[in-house]
């Protein structure tokens, strides 16, 4: 099979991935073998390829937003059958025994492992996934549109939940890529007012098309104080303006796995008034199941740019250069 691997972590413009031929993997007893039909290109993949995230497995195959067809089952697998359409997401395994796993917080498990970082992911024609961490997928979406839901959608959903946004509240969204454009739709469906801050003129247009009340530059001031904000852009310099935009009692959620250094904060301007900063550390399977049920009930407009699997390096470079509106998706040829 064809598969991309990260051989030389470094800037995307230096082409850190190589396309190579590998044997089709054999599923373990608890795994599914999946023929990949589509795989989203996530900013986390970019962090793995560029070395922002430390190497967990040399030569790993990135990709954790994979949609595919089950072609073989491990001997201990139940609940799936050949031909099923399944989703493969970021969280790939946990210990199931630590205090986090036993209290519904498996995303904090110190022994957790991740698709496309600890084990090979979906930038390939075939991949494997533990059956307990595979998702049954909603009908009504083509493969290309489903793929971004498996990380961009799920993580955005968790980030939105962590804002504790009141019904009809005022939400700021900083950065407007794959995750943000889905999260905005979920927030709007609950009656929220959404204000978007992004440097991309095309992304601002998309935000307004989807129903945002306003869209402006990333350091701009919202037209009204915000009850909550989500920072999707991996830019620590946006933390101070996002905090300053919050009303008293507001919550800022930082949704990325990687963030550049946060600029100096002024207590009175940025934190006083019981403003709160929270992070998001992966997601639980329950988050994923809840979000996919929501996506089945409330069809989402998933804006994608398709790339052939053989052009994964160009997709990453375009993502790094902010040349992708919505979500980039690799499609099997």
From TrEMBL:
Reaction(s) catalysed (UniProt annotation): a secondary alcohol + NAD(+) = a ketone + NADH + H(+); a primary alcohol + NAD(+) = an aldehyde + NADH + H(+)
State its cofactor: Zn(2+)
Q: Matching SUPFAM superfamilies, A to Z?
A: GroES-like, NAD(P)-binding Rossmann-fold domains
Q: What are the residue boundaries of the Enoyl reductase (ER) domain, all occurrences included?
A: 14-330
Q: Which domain of life is it from?
A: Bacteria
Entry similarity comment = Belongs to the zinc-containing alcohol dehydrogenase family.
**The name this protein goes by in its record:** Probable alcohol dehydrogenase AdhA
């Amino acid at each position: 099979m064809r598969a991309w691997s990260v051989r030389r972590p470094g800037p995307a413009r230096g082409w850190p991935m190589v396309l190579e031929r590998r044997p089709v993997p054999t599923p373990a007893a608890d795994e599914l073998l999946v023929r990949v039909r589509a795989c989203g290109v996530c900013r986390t993949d970019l962090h793995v390829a560029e070395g922002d995230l430390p190497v967990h497995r040399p030569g790993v195959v990135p990709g954790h937003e994979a949609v595919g067809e089950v072609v073989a089952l491990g001997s201990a697998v139940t609940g799936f059958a050949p031909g099923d359409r399944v989703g493969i997401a970021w969280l790939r395994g946990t210990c199931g025994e630590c205090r986090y796993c036993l209290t519904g917080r498996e995303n904090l498990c110190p022994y957790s492992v991740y698709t496309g970082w600890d084990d090979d992911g979906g930038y390939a024609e075939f991949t494997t996934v533990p059956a307990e961490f595979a998702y049954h997928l909603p009908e009504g979406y083509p493969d290309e549109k489903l793929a971004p839901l498996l990380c961009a959608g799920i993580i955005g959903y968790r980030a939105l939940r962590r804002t504790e946004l009141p019904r009809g509240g005022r939400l700021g969204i900083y950065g407007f890529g794959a995750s943000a454009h889905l999260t905005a739709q979920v927030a709007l469906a609950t009656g929220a007012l959404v204000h978007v801050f992004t440097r991309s003129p095309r992304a601002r247009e998309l935000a307004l098309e989807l129903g945002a009340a306003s869209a402006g530059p990333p350091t701009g001031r919202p037209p009204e104080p915000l009850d909550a904000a989500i920072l999707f852009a991996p830019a620590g310099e946006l933390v101070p303006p996002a905090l300053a935009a919050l009303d008293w009692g507001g919550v800022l959620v930082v949704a990325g796995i990687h963030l550049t250094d946060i600029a100096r904060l002024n207590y009175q301007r940025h934190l006083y008034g019981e403003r709160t900063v929270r992070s998001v550390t992966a997601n639980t399977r329950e988050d994923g199941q809840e979000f996919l049920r929501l996506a089945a009930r409330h069809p989402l407009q998933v804006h994608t740019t398709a790339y052939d699997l053989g052009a994964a390096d160009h997709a990453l470079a375009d993502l790094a250069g902010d040349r992708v509106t919505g979500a980039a998706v690799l499609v099997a040829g």
